[in-house]
Specification:
Layout: E1 4-5, H1 6-22, H2 26-38, H3 42-61, E2 71-79, E3 84-85, H4 90-102, E4 114-115, E5 122-123, E6 131-137, E7 142-149, H5 151-154, E8 158-162, H6 168-175, E9 187-194, H7 197-207, H8 214-220, H9 225-238, E10 253-261, E11 268-275, E12 281-286, E13 315-318, H10 324-329, E14 335-344, H11 347-358, E15 371-373, H12 398-407, E16 412-415, H13 421-429, E17 433-436, H14 442-446, E18 449-456, E19 465-479, H15 486-498
Parallel strand pairs: 1-3, 2-6, 9-10, 13-14, 14-15, 15-16, 16-17
Antiparallel strand pairs: 2-7, 4-5, 7-12, 8-11, 9-11, 14-19, 17-19, 18-19
Helix pairs in contact: 1-4, 2-3, 12-13
């Protein structure tokens, strides 16, 4: 065989990460389209419609499907007889490919990787280094999987050391509700069983790289204990009624993947990692005959779903004249279309605001009667005002909520997924409201942003405070001024409904 050339390998890695930034795997999109057809919850169906519409827009526009373009994960199965025509190490070649992908001049991706994680947390600017997993196998080829995992889903990863007699299914069903909706369901659960703690986690991550195929398993029936577990866990997780974005509905997971490995007689390690609505991975082989050829899917393969703002059922809100009284009048589950000027801010900005307030320093912007959007957008390209700008997980800002509402004059917040008890209590106390935007619809959301400028903390990059001028940005009232959360009421309602649906129809 020919040797694998350095430039070919680097180019293949770069092409792979660009490809997955805007192309969903078709198996995922097909499964999501079928879930959309089955869904009976209006809120969940609307959320899935936004995700599907966003996916098609990204495939057509070659822009990221999510503002969180992920941490780069690469699985390499290296044939024992592989020859290299390279001066760089394999690790260095992978990182150079990632660097080129994330700084691509036509589709720049958001750099989210921070160096010195327990200290200064300085952005590497190019999303390197990648997380690389090596396996030496038989043969003379190189098998490569490139995956981009967002922080929202990665942060919900779980690992437990069960007793050998404990039920894996019971642990999963008990654990899923504790994960909230920050992992952007409907997605895929990857489960690793056995080995040692770190092996179980690696199995869970690797299992997510396989195609969505549980419909085939359902059709033919299970043949092994692992296949039985997949079906049982999928049925019981969907019966929880969590639904798309945690709003309550029929579909929480589209597939359950399980990989196992022999383990110690005294142990039962179990790991669980979810894949979000921005499921991103690509699989290719190199044999020394050039870079990988990644064939784009046909746009005709996408479900015929086109989400547009519902101006009849949604309430238009003018943020420039918004009052605390108007915010207090919003009802749980009410859909709004936001218009006017909105500020942004997430983890780093909130931490800096807290430090400044503690020192009595003046903030760079006035939050009085303003709305803040928890977002870290992708840089704009070509004629864009801003790049993909979907919401980040709101619970990370929970500890700052009382401070923001009490000390800055802020009256409402927009983010992804649920709020925790501390934030809900602050919202109730100040008669505020929390609005939820759909995670996994970042490019669609960005089209509602007509102007963008940095107004504070410019040194924080994507975590700076921006001011967006928006037109008909879709949100749902997730926590109203009385403290009622649709992420609590919705799943309970649909869990009860699913319990009354015959198994063959659920």
């Amino acid at each position: 065989m020919s040797a694998i050339r350095q430039d070919d390998f680097i180019q293949s890695i770069a092409d792979g990460f660009q490809y997955i930034s805007y192309y969903h795997p078709l198996d995922y999109i097909t499964a999501l389209g079928k879930a959309y057809e089955r869904e009976e919850s209006p809120a969940a169906k609307d959320a899935i419609a936004q995700i599907l519409t966003n996916s098609r827009m990204c495939a057509e526009g070659k822009r990221p499907m999510c503002q969180d373009t992920g941490i780069a994960v690469v699985f390499l199965k290296v044939g024992m007889n592989v020859k290299w025509d390279a001066k760089m190490s394999v690790t260095d070649m992978v990182n150079e490919g990632v660097r080129r992908a994330y700084n691509h001049p036509d589709n720049k991706l958001r750099a989210s990787v921070l160096l010195d994680p327990a200290g200064k947390r300085t952005n590497s600017k190019d999303n390197t280094p990648a997380v690389i997993h090596y396996e030496i196998v038989e043969g003379d080829g190189l098998e490569v999987i490139c995956a981009a995992k967002g922080g929202g889903s990665e942060n919900k990863s779980k690992m437990v050391m069960l007793n050998p007699s404990d039920s894996i299914v019971d642990w999963v069903v008990k654990t899923i509700p504790t994960m909230g909706a920050g992992w952007c369901p409907p997605g895929i659960l990857g489960i690793g069983v056995g080995g040692t703690p770190e092996k179980a986690m690696l199995l869970a991550k690797e299992s997510l790289m396989a195609p969505v195929d549980i419909h085939e398993l359902i059709a033919r029936g299970p043949k092994t204990r692992i296949e039985e577990l997949r079906l049982e866990i999928m049925d019981k997780v969907n019966a929880l009624g969590i639904g798309a974005q945690g709003l309550g509905g029929l579909t929480t997971v589209l597939d359950v993947k399980i990989m196992d490995y022999p383990t110690h007689a005294a142990s039962l390690p179990v790991a669980m990692i979810p894949n979000c609505a921005a499921t991103r991975h690509v699989h290719f082989h190199l044999h020394g005959d050039g870079p990988a050829v990644l064939t784009p899917p046909s746009i005709s393969e996408w479900p015929d779903v086109a989400w547009t703002p519902n101006t009849e059922k949604s309430t238009r809100v003018n943020l420039d004249t918004l009052t605390p009284e108007e915010v207090a009048s919003w009802k749980p589950g009410q859909t709004l279309l936001l218009n006017g000027k909105m500020l942004t801010g997430r983890d780093a900005a909130h931490k800096r605001i807290a430090d400044m307030l503690a020192k009595g320093e003046k903030l760079p912007v006035d939050f009085k009667n303003r709305v803040i959007y928890y977002v870290g957008p992708v840089d704009p390209m070509r004629n864009e005002v801003v790049g993909p700008a979907g919401p980040t997980t709101a619970t990370r800002m929970d500890k700052f909520t009382e401070m923001m509402l009490a000390q800055t004059g802020l009256i409402s917040m927009v983010g992804k997924a649920e709020r925790g008890p501390v934030a809900i209590e602050a919202i109730k106390k100040h008669k505020s409201a929390y609005l939820m935007a759909v995670g996994g619809a970042a490019y669609l959301v960005s089209k509602a942003i007509k102007e963008s400028k940095v107004v504070g903390f410019a040194d924080l990059g994507m975590e700076a405070i921006y001011e967006f001028t928006i037109q008909d940005m879709p949100v749902t009232v997730a926590v109203d001024s009385s403290g009622t959360s649709v992420h609590n009421t919705g799943p309970k309602e649909w869990q009860a409904k699913i319990g009354k649906i015959p198994v063959s129809q659920a």
